[in-house]
Amino acid sequence: MDDIRARITKDGIRIYEDADFVGMRTAGRVAAEILDAVAPLVVAGTTTAVIDDFITDEIRRRGVTSATIGYKGYKHASCISVNHVVCHGIPGAKVLMDGDILNIDVTVIVDGWYGDTSRMYVAGQLARKAERLIEVTHEGLMRGIAAVKPGNTFGDIGHAIQTYVEAQRMSVVRDFCGHGLGRVFHAPPNVLHYGRPGSGPVLEEGMFFTIEPMVNLGRPETKVLADDWTAVTRDKSLSAQFEHSVGVTATGCEIFTLSPSGKFHPTWG
Ligand code: MF3
Ligand code: CO
Ligand code: CO
């Protein structure tokens, strides 16, 4: 229930109840199942519009709702960000080429709960540098998730990601962040993927948010194209991103958007 007694911390972060994990589990699983289903479509010669149409159909077939269609004027069921596109790539006529890497980001609403997840795919043969970028980005996300437990802070999450990524001589994007979610798409806090230990709000059981680091092979700076959505690396270096929706538990966290078929990473399954 979206009742008025819901507790909000001094940082404006909503604390959800035990029963709310059930709704998030379902929404997260549906989003992850759709990303699983899309994998066979990611081949050289197809277009990002074909992939997005498939996602639109999958959402409809499951009787759930796209959170992105109509969101701030966005018209598509996914964001598809190819190569040097950092995030918010708009599906369209772009033809995938052998060796392209892409992030596909889907958010669904199931019974009022939001499930938000993205992962990397490759069309054809994965080049060594791209593979390393994807590996480091995934590991950065998992290290961020490992820092999620009551008493730690959001700065601890960002610090875990940043120190790992920078030690691999790659960079963390500063211009976009993760976010609280639950019965809404984007809520406090901003979940930064960089930071100092002990900084930021303290994590409490019942917080729901995303962690979605974007990592560049080159410099971290981005710019948004004239379409007002597509964010690209300024230096045109390759960029990767993975996103999970998580909930803080008494001892750590629950990942709501795990891949049911274990295909979260392109070189798995
Ligand atoms: N799913 C994205 C996120 O991780 C947001 C996409 S908003 C859109 O927060 F309008 F671009 F789809
Ligand atoms: Co998100
Ligand atoms: Co997303």
* Beta content: 25-35%
List bound small molecules.
2-amino-4-trifluoromethylsulfanyl-butyric acid, cobalt (II) ion
What is the β-strand count? Answer: 17
Rg, please? 17 Å
Specify the overall morphology. Answer: globular
| Largest pleated sheet | 4 strands, antiparallel
Structure described in brief:
The chain has 269 residues and is α+β, with helices and mostly antiparallel strands. The protein has helices spanning 20-38, 48-61, 128-146, 154-167, and strands at 7-8, 14-15, 65-66, 78-82, 85-87, 101-110, 113-122, 171-172, 178-180, 187-191, 208-211, 214-216, 222-224, 231-233, 239-241, 244-248, 253-255.
Question: What key attributes describe this structure?
Answer:
single chain; 269 residues; alpha+beta; four-stranded antiparallel beta sheet; three-stranded antiparallel beta sheet; 4 helices; globular; binds 2-amino-4-trifluoromethylsulfanyl-butyric acid; binds cobalt (II) ion
